[in-house]
Amino acid sequence: MSDRRSMPVPDGLEGDRLDAAIARMFGLSRTRAAELVAAGDVLVDGAAGAKSDRVQAGSWLDVTLPPPPSAPVPRPDPVPGMTIVYEDADIVVVDKPVGVVAHPTVGWTGPSVLEGLLASGVQLATSGAAERQGIVHRLDANTTGLMVVAKSEVAYSVLKRAFKERTVDKRYHTLVQGHPDPLRGTVDAPIDRHPSGDGRFAVVAGGRPSITHYDTLEAFRAASLLEIKLETGRTHQIRVHMAALRHPCVGDHLYGADPTLADRLGVHRQWLHAVRLGFEHPTEGRPVEFESPYPEDLRKAVDQLRED
C-alpha cells in the first residue's frame, strides 16, 4: 500500500536537486528517488517536477512513497574474504574485499557487507531504510578496505552525524597514473552525476561540494602512490577528482585509466584501498583507529613497480 506524504522543503535542503532532496528526506537511494520523480509521484507546489530541478526552502512537496521494502534476506554464508576487524556492542568494523557492495541495491545480485554481517549473526541497528540498516558510509564495490557499521541505534545516530560533520578520519591509498604536480595538494571541486547519464560522476558546476587532500608517498616510472584524506564522501569522489587532475586511478577504466598499464601490473579494478579509519567511539567517547593492509592484487602491483 502506497504512502502519501505532504510537507515543506526544509531550510537545509535549499538549492539541492529534487531527486537528492527526496532521497535525503525519506531515506531512499538517489536512483529510487529519481524513479519516483519520473513517475509523477512527486509534486512541488502542486506541479510535477523534474529530478534536476533545484528545490526552494518552504516549497510544498506531495510525495507518494512506495511500500517499504522488506528487510534483506541474509545470504546462507558469510561473504568470502570479508573479515571483522573489531566488534563490540555498538559497532562492527570490517575489512571489505573486492566485489562487495555496502548494502543491497536495485540491479545488484552480488554480495553485500550488510547481508554478510547478518548471515554471520551480527545484530545491526534498524534505523534508516530497511535495506541499509546500520550502514553509515559506503565503499564502491571494487574499492577495498575499512568500513564501520552501527550495531546500536545510538551508534547509528552518532556516527551518521560524525560523517556529516566531517569528524571521521578517512584515509585511502591509491595508485594513480603519472606524477601529480604539485606532489601534495587539495582538490576542491563540486561533484554530481555526469551529464551523459551513463552512471559516471564528474566535476560539475553547481554539484555537491567535494574536497580531497592528496600527498605523494612514492613515485615510480609510470605511476605514483598517493595517500588520500577525504573531507567529504561523495560517490566516486577520489576516482573523479584524480581523473580531473588527469591522473586517474590505475585500473579505473570508467574514468579513463590506461588499460595497458593496468594489464601489465595485473590490476583488474581501480587501485584504491581504504587503509585507515579513525573516529570517536559513539558511546565511549574514546578515539579509535583501525588499519588495513593492501589486498594481494594491489600489493603485487606496487611490488612490481618497485622492481621496475
TrEMBL record:
It catalyses: a uridine in RNA = a pseudouridine in RNA. GO terms for biological process: enzyme-directed rRNA pseudouridine synthesis. GO terms for molecular function: catalytic activity, acting on RNA; pseudouridine synthase activity; RNA binding. Keywords: Isomerase, RNA-binding. Residues 90-244 form the Pseudouridine synthase RsuA/RluA-like domain. InterPro entries: PsdUridine_synth_cat_dom_sf, PsdUridine_synth_RluA-like_CS, PsdUridine_synth_RluC/D, PsdUridine_synth_RsuA/RluA, RluA_PseudoU_synthase, S4_RNA-bd_sf. The active site is at D140. It holds the Pfam family PseudoU_synth_2. Its EC number is 5.4.99.-. PANTHER family: MITOCHONDRIAL RNA PSEUDOURIDINE SYNTHASE, RIBOSOMAL LARGE SUBUNIT PSEUDOURIDINE SYNTHASE D. Belongs to the pseudouridine synthase RluA family. Responsible for synthesis of pseudouridine from uracil. This is Pseudouridine synthase.
